[in-house]
Specification:
The protein is mainly beta. It contains three helices and ten strands.
Length: 239
């Protein structure tokens, strides 16, 4: 546990906010609608783990980092950056805790902080094992999650997520895949008088979990949703 706390401290001490995201008067209503779809995907955590649930006694504490690539040359992003020169990636770090429950349920919560775009996202989630994995059969699970974002300049934003996942373990390796529906609701909180917008995006992902030592879990993942790509890394202690 001490190693996890040290890693968390290092991760967030390394976070430096650029503070450059800001809606410009040149941003149109249609650009705002498309923009919040990208942001909704960037702030909504991907699973960074396989379909299998933790079990009644299971407990997982993780630190994660995620890169979301964006089309920074598009009008929607240039018109939402104060120098019209946005980064081509959104980098975010996350602390994630999950707890196994009876009857195939997991619950979880996380805090995500942007590293080059100033925001904090709070996520709660629930996961259910549709099919518990075995030696011969894969694990299949479903998840619902809600994310509320604070600190994002000029924008109030929240997202809901519904996901379906499948995985199959082989010794210390567990490959997995999944599909998620991310629904974003946003309102402009500045002086532009833009109408509220909502956006829906389907996101697919593949990943690999490795358990090199007892109680240690490592994960790598790639996802695609809307017009963005996402890449995640995870290190966890699992009891």
């Amino acid at each position: 546990m001490k190693k996890v706390l040290v890693l968390v401290s290092m991760l967030f001490c390394a976070t430096a906010f650029a503070g450059d995201f800001q809606l410009m008067p040149t941003l149109t209503q249609s650009q705002f609608s498309s923009l919040i779809k990208d942001i909704g995907l960037a702030v909504t955590p991907t699973p960074n783990g396989p379909a299998e649930t933790l079990g009644v006694l299971g407990f997982d504490v993780a630190v994660e980092t995620q890169l979301t690539t964006i089309d920074n040359k598009s009008d929607k992003w240039e018109n939402s950056w104060d120098n019209a020169d946005p980064n081509n990636t959104i980098w975010a770090n996350r602390v994630h805790v999950q707890k196994g429950l009876p009857f195939g349920f997991d619950i979880g919560a996380s805090i995500t902080k942007g590293a080059n775009m100033d925001f904090t996202a709070y996520t709660i989630e629930g996961k259910y094992a549709i099919l518990e994995g075995s030696v011969l059969t894969p694990a299949i699970s479903a998840k619902l999650a809600y994310t509320k974002v604070t600190g994002l300049e000029d924008v109030n934003l929240q997202t809901g997520l519904a996901g379906l996942y499948i995985s199959k373990g082989f010794l210390i390796l567990t490959p997995y895949a999944g599909i998620e529906d991310v629904y974003t609701i946003a309102s402009e909180d500045g002086d532009l008088s833009l109408d509220d917008e909502s956006a829906n995006a389907i996101r697919g992902m593949v990943g690999l979990q490795v358990c090199p030592f007892p109680f240690v879990v490592l994960n790598i993942e790639a996802a695609r949703g809307g017009a963005v790509n996402q890449f995640g890394l995870k290190a966890a202690i699992r009891f």
